[in-house]
Amino acid sequence: MTEATVHDCSVLPTLLSTQKNIGKIYADGAYSFKQGFDAIAQSGGTPSIPVRSGTTTVRKNPSPGQVLRNELLEEIREAGGRIAWKKTSDHHRRSLVETHMFRLKTILGGTLRGRSFANQKTEAKIMAKILNKMAQLGMPRSEKLDV
After folding, report:
1. Whole-angstrom Cα distance, residue 5 to residue 115?
2. Which listed residue, 48, 60, 134, 147, has the most CB atoms within 10 A of its CB?
């Protein structure tokens, strides 16, 4: 959660600075920027971020993040384009988070009522706990049948 004046992608390096070997990082195109890819490389992650059409590889002295970006571009080309890549790369997992946020906003409201940022963070945590509890209560239990 960020304040309204802070763009989400600007906090990615800070979020990843304390993480190591985190696996795949799913994000939308807003996170396709040099500092973000460098932060992903530094954390040992693998980006799953659709890059803008017309993006070319960096050939001269690429940073570690640009090497990851070049590999991602090659993966997208080999898949036959961004749409095909999204299907073959598991990028749809990112939409699961978007769906979760849509569900939260639909059930509990799309606005926060706290005036201070600290109160808004607390309110968001409470909303997430409520939604997680509701999901937990509504999950079916599966049991093996002896037939």
Report:
1. 15
2. 48
